[in-house]
Amino acid sequence: MRTVVWSLGIGAAVLLVLLAVGWLFPYRALRLALWFVTHSVYWLRVSGREHVPARGGALLVCNHVRYLDWLLLLAAHGRFLRLVVIAGWTQQWGVRHLLKWAGVIAIDGSVGVRGLVRAMRQARTCLERGELVCLFAEGLVLPGGLSLSFPRQFQRIARKSRTVIIPVCLDQTLGSLFVVQGGRLRWRWPLTLPFPAYVTFGEPLPPGTPPGEVRQALQLLSARAAVGRSQRLKPPHRRFVRIAARRPFRSCLLDSTRPERLSYAHTLAATLCAVKIFRPLLGDTPMVGVWLPSSMGSAFANITLAMLGKTAVNLNYTSSPEVIQSALRQCGIRHVLTSRRFTERMKLVPGPGVELIYFEDLAPRFTRWMRLSRWLAVVFLPGWFLEYVVLRLGRHRLDDLATVVFSSGSTGEPKGIMLSHRNIAANIESMIQAVSLRPSDRALGVLPFFHSFGYTVTLWAPLQVGASVLYHPDPRQAKEIGELCRKYRCSLYLSTATFLRFCLRKCQADDFRTLRILICGAEKLPVSLAQEFERKFGVLPMEGYGCTELSPVASTNLPDLEVQGIRQISNKLGTVGQPIPGVAARIVHPETRAPLPIGAEGLLLIYGGNVMVGYLNRPELTRAVIQDGWYVTGDMGRLDEDGFLTLTGRLSRFAKCGGEMVPLEKIEELLHDILGTSERVCAVTCVPDEARGERLVVLYVPQEGVQVRQWCQQLSNRGLPNLWLPSERDFHPVAELPVLGSGKLNLQGVKEMALALTQKEVIK
Predict the structure, then answer these.
(1) Does an H or E element contain 606, and which?
(2) At 641, phi and psi to the nearest 5?
(3) Which of 46, 237, 276, 761 is most buried by its number of CB atoms within 10 A?
């Protein structure tokens, strides 16, 4: 009994001593607590510490992070660090004391501009005293509507300061452990322990560096850090095995055409069966074609091919037979996986030497015992055993080809774009950080897998975090898609502007209420269309940007985050958002390739681990578009000081009239704006002209009450240069505008149609 009393007394004394030390030295106590957290809950890796001066002041600029995640910065360096954060939600019980111990500089938005001025003055004073001050590169809106952009914050602190500026990148490759639900900050259970986090300090920038250049340096630091750590990634199919073994009973795949819901255990078990059956059938052929729509069967086919070490080539069933046969020849494909039911609707003529393997013919080989034994293996065997022993995936490398995606052909002959497992995994890692993809999410997968957004975002991305996917084979069936979204409570939906127009006409007002994020890509999202969609459904579509060569996502708008009246700006209508983590964007002169200042229009380059391997069998073309790791997109655009990217058109979609570059997409946008419609009713292209070199041609679908002469007059009233104005005789009515299977405008078809119409005029 005496021993117990002594033990309790000693324990109480130790606790009192610890509390006293924490009270007297709160910052050191907090650092000690963070040390334990970053060596247990988190797996923190820090690089570039040598760039932070051992003494003297320095202004650190960190990327956008989620609320309390910035506490990890305190554990990343030994020096005392002052963090500039917003008050408001930080006044919650417990958080207030934590921030006080951390010595943060809080911006009190409740008192308006005075709170901002007071905090900025305090930050400058700390810099002058030789302390480290950290500012976050994010725009904010305070209570009362006070807008606080990053350049404004930066200039108020850095003005008259002669301290160096150090970019800092904080990455959490599986997203944040903190999420906002119902306007409140919540903690979520980590997907894995320890939870990976990385802090990278960049090379110092000289005093007086403009805020736009600081943000550019921060983007490039993020991209280089992601490329540097990409060796730690796993190919997506190998990570899927680990997730399935860890969470076997979570929902995985759903299909609108099938009644069953497959768990991760059932999905991996079925894949194990398919691997056994397909291995002898496919032999040593490196590439295998897939002729299937967005469906559970197509997902199985792609996952199985990845497990077999094959490169999947999802064929575009909306293309002509000549294009399909060209793709098969380029890849040397001898086998195509398909189903009889689908080929009855979409006939495939593969040409000589290509065997069609039908799923229905192989179904009897999937015996009950085979399925049961594989399911038991997934449930009871550890993930590493399934990965290395059962499936023998240890030899599958990041640089192996995952897929070859053929371009849509919107600007000419399709090209085979080679994407490695590293490309796909790096892009998914960036998306997880950007949209905070979580196991509770359910994606609505309607884009086909021959579309790179469908392949990466609706096939592999959910499988990396334990989320689920609902597939539907036809993205044009808006009524059915709306009903499915409401019935299955989907939270993520990736679409195009064309398909959103179908939804506006056919869906009910509450069909999309459960969506957390709706992102549109592949074509421009008109602001009027986004606003009309939000008015009807209560969900604002966000425009993103990417292309197949970028695996495919490069940037996106995201919903603004708001907690306790403080709103972080993540969306600007009319832009394609900010580059996602791990991706850098640069604007250069189209001819000299010299970097252009912030706000200037030029050619867009993208850098990151998502940049493709290259074009299949076209090394010269690959060298032309990948220069020092930067992909030359061919898109024209500009970056603003907040890092948002605005596209102004394709370099190839400029006409050269009288020596002046005329943006065709800009003319299209103005013509639609005059009509006040969100529907695509016209397309602008150019044809050769002896006098000017090229002249503009407008193809339009006739609209009731629209007169071409009045249309032209209203366009000229917009103050455009004369060379930008198409003449009345160059407006040609057509029954419909040519589009691709993805919903994008078929630019090659528009060009050919315009040439045919103008040649008819010449003959007349």
Answers:
(1) strand 602-608
(2) -70, -20
(3) 237
Distance between CA atoms of residues 681 and 711, nearest Å: 13
**For residue 556, which of 540, 544, 569, 542 has the smallest C-alpha distance?**
544
Q: What CATH architecture is 658-763?
A: 2-Layer Sandwich (3.30)
Query: How far is Cα 100 from Cα 106, in angstroms, rounded to an integer?
Result: 9
The overall pTM is greater than 0.90: no
Outline where 514-597 has alpha helix (H). Answer: 527-537
Determine what percent of the chain is predicted with pLDDT higher than 90: 53
The total number of residues written for the chain in this structure: 764
What is the spatial distance between Cα 577 and Cα 570, in angstroms, rounded to a whole number? 7
Report residue 316 as tokens: 């575009």
To which H or E segment does residue 737 belong? Answer: none
233-250+261-424 has CATH 3.40.50.12780 classification = yes
Residue 269 CB-half CA count within 13 A:
24
C-alpha pair distances (Å), 91 with each of 97, 139, 183, 229, 337? 9, 20, 14, 36, 58
Residues contacting residue 216 through CB under 8 Å, at least 6 positions apart: 584, 586, 598, 639
Per DSSP, 748 falls in state H
Q: Which amino acid is it at 338?
A: T
* Helix locations, 25-61, DSSP H: 26-37
Per-residue pLDDT of 427-478, as tens digits, reads: 999 999 888 888 999 999 999 999 899 999 999 999 999 999 999 999 989 9
Q: What is the pLDDT of residues 205-259, one digit of tens each?
A: 998 888 888 899 999 999 999 999 988 899 999 999 999 999 999 999 999 999 8
For β-strands 42-47 and 195-201, DSSP reports them as: parallel
At 667, list the tokens.
């003319």
- In Å, what is the CA distance from 284 to each residue of 180, 201, 280, 336? 49, 46, 9, 14
Q: For residues 242 and 381, what is the distance between their CA atoms, to the nearest angstrom? A: 11
Tokens representing residue 380 in the block:
């009871």
Which token pair is 99? Answer: 């921030």
Are the CB atoms for 378 and 246 separated by under 8 Å? no
